[in-house]
Predict the 3D structure of the following.
Amino acid sequence: MGRTSDANERLMDAALDLIWEESYGAITIDDICKRADVKKGSFYYFFDSKSDLAVAALERMWLQESKPKMDNMFSPSVEPLTRITNYLHSMYEFQAELKRKHGKTLGCPVMSVGSETCTCAEETAIGTKIRELFTRKRRYYESAIRDALAEGSIEPGDPAEKATALAGLIEGILTQARILNNPEILRSLPELALRIVGAKSLATAPTTKS
Amino acid sequence: MGRTSDANERLMDAALDLIWEESYGAITIDDICKRADVKKGSFYYFFDSKSDLAVAALERMWLQESKPKMDNMFSPSVEPLTRITNYLHSMYEFQAELKRKHGKTLGCPVMSVGSETCTCAEETAIGTKIRELFTRKRRYYESAIRDALAEGSIEPGDPAEKATALAGLIEGILTQARILNNPEILRSLPELALRIVGAKSLATAPTTKS
DNA sequence: GGTTGACTAGACTAAACGGTCAACTATTCG
DNA sequence: CGAATAGTTGACCGTTTAGTCTAGTCAACC
């Protein structure tokens, strides 16, 4: 009973947008409230603090955007290495689209927030969530790498290590794209990814339209 | 004439330390003054703002730490690919040392600050400096890659593109190490770097002590 | 239609923040 | 010495900030 509200969702969306456009540290609770058109009283009705909201917003992003997309791209019905190259290609498209619409290449919020908050002792809740999200993503990479190994399309090696390296490469190039505000850097990612996992052939399937 | 002071240098050092340990956005001018044991009046005698100080501090770091080290590691008297692997090996040692002393793997401040401030319109002075520092570092990579190409020890390809990829990989793995607070991830960097630049042989010279 | 519980509004506080200022101090040069 | 230069100090100001609290509104269900 009582009335229902989507103010909490508006707050999470607003927080994520602002974190993406600026940074976690640069935005205030007032900023978030303003963007979400929610008053402070309601903010504190739903969330305890900015970091509490950030954790919820990141989890929401994962469930609503990242997971469905990755489930689709990393479907076992696709060739293992093609899963990776397709995923990275769509990542380029996504960032290029952002650049076209907002004029900004925004990169990956998990990486940005992580780098910003993980060493800060007070924000441990965020740190935990960030590491959790990293792990979840890495599992998709690892699974594809394992399948590629079984298939014999990549050089032997520890799948976990290869997945960590791949994740590092992706996040690094993505952050560079953000800093330089240039999505074009991401174009080379599919090929670089194949290199890093030790693919025997460097053909990147759907890159024919380059 | 008049009296002399090193307060400006103490401020730059303090700012860099704090940025490294926390983040650019998380620290305040008061924090920096406290750490440097300098009063606010003196701060504004030397600098206009936090971002002004940050720009000066980053430039100072480059001149005093990064450049001498890179000039040494990327000396043309060393084999091109060995320059890269040696550099990355020393990077691991450095971060492992930080972890031992401060309990924290701090990563690269240029990357952290860059990701944090580059999309924010107000902080353009920092953004410009960050991109400048990135470019300077990339030049060392590019030069080594060009030499390796001439020598025939890597597969053909555009040196600039290869350098960008290498920089992305390094910064990505470094940021991951920061987020996970685990320098061990960096151990694989020399080998990964060789892969990414397309080295024909994957031998990493001084990694025999692993 | 009245009660209950979910949500909203916004004024309020105390602390922290960026930034200013005028008075003060130390050093150096003539 | 004394004047000019270079740097220091801490009080002070207005604003922004996170966070609280109370009074009120709205929807649902009985």
